Amino acid sequence: MQAKLETKDTLYIGGEWVAPSSTNTIEVVSPTTEEVIARVPEAAEGDVDRAVEAAKAALVGPFPRLSPAERAEFLAKLSQAIQARAPEIAEVITNEMGSPSSWALMGQVYSSTMVLDGWAELAQTFPFEELRAGALGPVLVRKEPVGVSAGIIPWNVPLFIVALKLGAALAAGSPMILKPSPETPLDSYILGEILDEIELPKGMVSILPAGREVGEYLVRHPGVDKVGFTGSTAAGRKVGAICGELLKRCTLELGGKSAAIVLDDADLASTLPMLMPNALMNNGEACVAQTRILAPRSRYDEVVDALAEAVKGTTVGDPGDPSIAVGPLVAERQRDRVLGYIEKGRSEGAKLAVGGGRPAGLDRGWFVEPTLFVDVDNKMTIAQEEIFGPVLSVLAYDDESDAVRIANDSDYGLSGSVWTQDVERGIDVARQVRTGTYGINQFGTLDLRQPFGGFKASGVGRELGPEGLSAYLETKSIVLPGDYQPPS
Ligand code: NAD
User: Fold this and answer.
1) Which of 103, 276, 362, 392 stands the most exposed, by the fewest C-beta atoms within 10 Å?
2) Does the annotation count 45 as an active-site position?
3) pTM value?
4) Distance CA 336, CA 358 (A)
5) Which residue positions in the chain have pLDDT lower than 50?
């Protein structure tokens, strides 16, 4: 049965629901049924201009001048209002991009509200103003809003990435123009309703679903001071180049090809049940997924057998069914891309242990079987490039230094983990792997209160924690007279 077609005819600009400046539309296609489930306006350049004007007005309006505690209150309210609609939002995200409902409520929604709660807490303790001793006398060091910011959002965890960026911007007092991906505009409409409900001062947020051309127009816009971008490394290079040329502040959160190192003393019975869900999280469409599993040669067969068993047992199907672990990929082109990588793996000599095609009985929807490659060499394309689908590779290593060498033999450096019964040994490995986050006997994806970001081609700058907040602030030093005494 054809699902009811949802339509929207307004955009959220400067805190108002307004008619779009063009007749362009985005069709949202269900990755499960391949049917059009919604039609929304696509923001155009005129809408970006209006959003920037509203943000510039908001920058000199009341919100940036609120106390950090008052700004924190808005963040806490935003979190609570999202929590109140959590099941509905999770379902919308499942419908638009195929995130399994068994994961979406926590992975897509509550993880986002936990991030917002973290920003609310940090806003209250962060030193926005400090009186410091300078070389000649006292200096007041202030952290001020960076200006008008743009948040460019990918489709894989849309609300979560919004929470990372918008939370930091609001904690800093910086207005933000969000540009959701054309694949996932629907959850952003709920966000607009919630921003209305919490009565966030107008102009602080605009939401402009659109494609990359309008995204680039926003990045280039002379009224935008800071760009927070999350997406592919290819697009990130482009955005970074524009920001470099125009001297805009910029944070880039890009792709990954992270390695999980299973040390020779690891307890496989406890390790694998934790590794597997991480590697296939969100249908494998996760930048932090650890898709290279490094096993000691001495225990290689044991690791492969256990992983093969686990991958074979992974359920694939309708993401709305809570018993399903892996749903469809976001789009037909993504399914074809992933199948292309699987073909490349075969042709370059990797051995297919499980999966490798489209699942039987699922003729509709962009499904790919959970797939396990073994005998993978780190030089192969499937070990070097981000696949962004449910495809894992197992690689053998000789000793610990060989494992570190393989983990580091990557253009990327986002995440990773080590699995061992000796935590000190794990910390030693963690110190040597060049990635922005790392876990010992746990995912090492990201801690919701501490800095997250990439080494190498995985990005520039950090989100979350005080480092992430600083990315939405400018620093001003006010040099005071030598005999200055602060009011008591
Ligand atoms: P993408 O790069 O195609 O698009 C990301 C966003 O950028 C979209 O909103 C898109 O419209 C916009 N965009 C693309 N080109 C642009 C340009 N030239 N100027 C301005 N905006 C532009 O990525 P995607 O396919 O939506 O997302 C998947 C990618 O995102 C993966 O590579 C994944 O690893 C990465 N990702 C990284 C993180 C992280 O925190 N490091 C988190 C999630 C996803």
Assistant:
1) 362
2) no
3) 0.97
4) 10
5) 1
